[in-house]
Design goal:
Layout lengths: L10 E6 L7 H10 L3 H4 L6 H7 L3 H4 L4 E7 L3 H10 L4 E2 L12 E4 L7 H10 L4 E4 L6 H12 L4 E4 L9 H5 L7 E9 L2 H16 L3 E6 L5 E8 L4 E7 L9 E5 L3 E4 L4 H18 L6 H19 L5 E2 L12
Parallel strand pairs: 1-2, 1-4, 2-3, 4-5, 5-6, 7-10
Antiparallel strand pairs: 7-11, 8-9, 8-13, 9-10, 11-12
Helix pairs in contact: 7-11, 9-11
Length: 325
């Protein structure tokens, strides 16, 4: 416990930011605080009260941490989230929480905004959890990498890293032989949701992505990645393909497996618990180098699409970060 980043018995968290299409301030805050059932029915994302209601109250909350402060880009959103997720303090501006909390959660998923959203808290020495994707461009990745080198406490992930449905194949794919083909499908945009597909399979195939080729469009991304293990990985991210949120097909030299992502709540809770464990122990749940490689894949997918499907070598994305631990 001597390496703990936070030593308070109950860790005080600030939930910062809210953008269109992302209801994490509602759900993530409820996972720490519990929620007001009546007020949560007004959540503009109906899936959130639906999956929260499925959880037994005694299993809902992460113990030892509470969201005590919230700030959102729209003041009205902050009022609604605070009422639904039992948050006692609404900040007038983000930096107001400095000195009042022990750590900050940046609950937005537009990578190009994250450096500036995080900067005041990083510079104040507060640990920060950043929603996926951490970045969507090289210059911002370089800034986060420098902060990581300086020992700043920054963690970012997709909840799909923690999917219980994928867990058996994170432990072993030996029964499938050597992987040769992996495919994942996802809705919405490559910039904001491609990372769900990428990070969902990353603990299965591991580091070692070589090239990225996106032959699609902004609305229909078809991304072919090559991996040093010999597998071809194809990810489809299509704007309106809501019927496909993370189905995975793994094909190897000896067998195949199909996995369907189902339990959103479990993944969110495990993801947030990993951040709290990091604050308690000072031990990262996975190296920052994994996040850096994943961000290079996101960036390469954008660059390839912009270059009409050119094959992009991962080593050519932010080459100064080679060897980052």
């Amino acid at each position: 416990m001597t390496n703990a980043l936070v030593k308070r018995e109950v860790i005080r968290l600030a939930m910062i930011g809210m953008v269109d299409g992302n209801g994490h301030p509602y759900s993530w805050s409820a996972i720490f605080n519990g929620y007001n059932e009546r007020a949560m029915q007004n959540c503009p994302y109906p899936g959130i009260p639906e999956y929260l209601a499925k959880e037994p109250k005694e299993n809902l909350r992460i113990k030892g941490a509470k969201v005590t402060h919230i700030w959102t880009d729209s003041p009205e959103d902050a009022r609604l989230v605070a009422e639904a997720s039992l948050i006692p303090h609404i900040a007038s501006y983000p930096e107001q929480v400095i000195g009042q909390v022990d750590a900050v959660i940046i609950a937005t998923d537009i990578g190009g905004e994250h450096v500036e959203r995080c900067r005041p808290f990083v510079e104040a020495g507060l640990p920060v959890f950043v929603d996926k994707p951490l970045v969507d461009n090289e210059s911002d990745l370089a800034i986060f990498a420098q902060w990581a080198r300086e020992g700043r406490a920054i963690l970012s992930s997709s909840s799909m890293r923690y999917s219980k449905e994928y867990m058996p194949y994170r432990l072993s794919t030996a029964n499938l032989g050597q992987l040769r083909y992996v495919t994942v499908a996802m809705a919405k945009s490559w910039e904001r949701y491609g990372i769900h597909a990428l990070e969902g399979i990353y603990p299965i195939v591991g580091p070692g992505f070589l090239t990225v080729r996106n032959t699609g469009t902004e609305d229909r991304n078809i991304v072919h990645l090559k991996h040093r293990c010999g597998a071809d990985i194809v990810i489809s991210v299509t704007a309106d393909m809501y019927g496909a949120f993370g189905p995975v097909l793994l094909c190897g030299t000896s067998g195949h497996a199909y996995v369907s992502f189902q339990d959103t709540f479990y993944s969110f809770k495990a993801q947030l618990q990993a951040f709290i464990d990091y604050l308690r122990t000072g031990e990262r749940p996975f190296p920052f180098a994994e996040t850096a490689e994943l961000m290079k894949l996101v960036i390469a997918g954008i660059r390839s699409r912009e270059q009409q499907g050119a094959e992009i070598a991962v080593k050519d994305i932010a080459p100064s970060l080679a060897g980052l631990e």
